[in-house]
Structures are given as C-alpha cells and as structure tokens.
Amino acid sequence: MKLSIITINYNNRDGLERTARSIVEQTFRDYEWIVIDGGSTDGSQDIMEEYSSHIAIGVSERDGGIYDAMNKGLERASGEYVQFLNSGDSFINRDVLERVFTDNLLADVNYGDQWCVLDGSIIEKRRYPVTMDLRFLFRAPLGHQASFIKTSLAKANPYRVKYTISADRAFFIELYLSGASFHYLNLPIVYFDTEGIGSNANTIEQRRNQLQQIKRELLPAPAVKDFEKLMADADEFDFVMRVAPLRWVYSFFKWLQKKKSRR
User: Which residues lie across from 217 on neighbouring strands?
Assistant: First the structure.
C-alpha cells in the first residue's frame, strides 16, 4: 500500500465530515484511512460510522492530546508513506493524490504547498521553499498536512508529546538533522483549517518558548548560539538586498573587493 492517511479528531464533527468527504472523493485509491478520535461527544462517531466502509482503522478513546493521537495513528500505519490530514483539513481537489503519486516518490519527506482557510475563506496561500534548510525549519513550521513522509522513518521518530503545540516543529527539525532527504512537490496539496490550537494567536508565546526548548534539546548549546547569530546575519543581508540603495552600495563594495583581489 502506498499511503496511510491519518486523521485525528476531537469534538469536530463538521470538520471530520469535511475531511471524510474530501478523502473518499479522491481519484487515487491506493491508500488506507486511519481515524483516531479522542472520545468525542459531539456526534463525531456518527460520522465515523457513516464512513466506516472507507475507514481501515477507527479508534475512539481518550488520549493525551494532539500528538499522542497522531502517534497512535502512526503506530497503526502500514503504507509506504504517511500523511496527517486532520479533521477540518481537506484536499485541494479530487485528483491531487493521483498527481502526487504519478511518479515514484524518492525522498524521505515530500512536501507541497497549502492554502490556509478560516471560516471557509482562504486567508493565505502558503508556499514552501524549493530547497529545504534548517533556517526555514527554525523560522516556520512545515505543514504536515501537505507532507508525505516515509512511514518507517516517521515511526522511528515519533512526535515528542511534551511539546504540546510544537511537536511537529521538533519532528521535521529532527528528521532534517538526521540527514533525511526533502523534496518539494511544487503544487498545492490541501486546504488547512487554521482554527486549531497550533494557529491560535493566543499561543504565540507558548510556541516561542517551546521552539527554544526544541533548539536546546536537538542542538548543543554553542551551536544554538552560533546558529541564531547566523540567522540574524542572514536576515540583515536579506534586508540589505531588498532595499535598492543598500543593495547598490553592497554591490559596489563587492565590485571593489573583486577588483582589488585581481591585482
């Protein structure tokens, strides 16, 4: 089996129905759908029952939060690749998976773009860099909704549940640091429902604190300090290159330096 689609849900009946409809409408069929529900009381289990013929594994029980539920789904996944399409998220169109899997995926992490949605309206078309690097991963999260990850690799690096709203950041950073390969798919994959806790403005400080903890856990202390300075220097350079007069001054001095080195 090529793909395991994992959906976690808790008291989001309408979102789960939207996700379910999006999955079953896909023209690509070489997948299993795993639903991990946290013991919802809002009728979500009725949706699971309605779509039971499409659900390979369905679990409804209390869990330890978002990432504990995602790990539960990951433990049960048997596809070559795994994708987390959580309740409320939906595919961009009916044939997107067919387009993704037309050719054999060779990278450990294959990621596309995602359109961020709030109350049914697109609020941001989030495009990711063609070449993934550590600077980006520390600056912004890579959307797991639009990523197809080798299941064996994901199982060997489960989500760190202590990072209650940032474990996905730690997950992709850890994969990158371990030497995993990343490949950009250059197409939008999903509509991402931004009403979840990870996108909530009230959690900005908590996310910032957890990111600092992730840095300290995954990198040696001296490396964290050096890396942050390198990122600050890179930000300054980006600013210089965006402002025309500064860019001209920079280019002039580079020209002088090159001319001097030729003497």
Answer: none
